[in-house]
Amino acid sequence: MNKQIAEVEKLTVRIGKKTVLNDIQVQLQKGESVVITGRNGSGKSTFLRCLAEVILPDQGSVEYSPEISREKIGFISDQISLFENFTVKQGIDFHSSVFRITDFDPTLINELKLNLNQKIKTLSAGERTLYHLSLILSQKPQILLVDEIIHVIDPFLREKFLEAIIDLISQLQTTVIMVNHTFSEIEKIPERVLLMENGQFIMDEKSEILGTKIKKIVSEKEIPKEIPCIFKKESSFFKEYFIYPFKEELRTKFPHDYKDLSLTEIIKAFIGDQYAKKRIP
What is the pLDDT of residue 13? Predict the structure, then answer.
């Protein structure tokens, strides 16, 4: 059984008159990989910033277990802010001094073939992301927070990035929490899915269990209303119905070809449902 490393209690954040996070309660376990998803503006990045202690909540708290120090929490944001006028080497030296790192591992930087005398501001978005990751990996983080960064990386660097994260989970049992809109590349990483809407988690499922609880029916005709459909896509020739929660007795009662879905399709269905509900007056 995994050990709990963080507990979020009644977390609430307001910006002006808008409540961005609304009384969130969730627990995080050591070594688990979590993806947080939901439509734009649902509060995902704000939640991650609270975990990183970049934003202080108006109410509630994030309590880490005593073994988690601030130096062991790594945060990669979609708005990367580094010392741009530093050279690559100056950035490494500064980061190492702040976090008291004596054994910086240059493997990732060497793979990128970065010039140590190159200014950080001249690096591409993907190179900056991998460079930032290499700095954080040197801290041997117990928690890694990744905020919507994968979409800016080209396929080659994206693979390097994900390989490094997988190694981190495997070697250090690091808890990885990712906010992401692109799922095909990370399909095999998350073991837990949190779906956010209006500043709250409306779904918290293990990935393998989620795959058994949602199916798809492709049909030219309308399906019976008794089948729990969360989202419907229509084309000129057929309709796609996304069924949740799916139960095995549906196969007998309503014979259809119930298709399995990838994580990407599952997330798209839930987010599509959120947008569909928003459009209903």
Answer: 96
φ, ψ dihedrals at 146, nearest 5°: -125, 120
* 147 has pLDDT over 60: yes
Q: Report the distance separating Cα 155 and Cα 110, nearest Å.
A: 18
Q: Are 145 and 52 in contact (CB under 8 A)?
A: yes
Give the tokens for residue 98.
């702040």
User: For the chain, first and last CA: distance in Å?
Assistant: 45
> pTM of the entire structure?
0.86
pLDDT beyond 70 at 184: no
CB-CB contact of 216 with 243 (8 Å)? yes
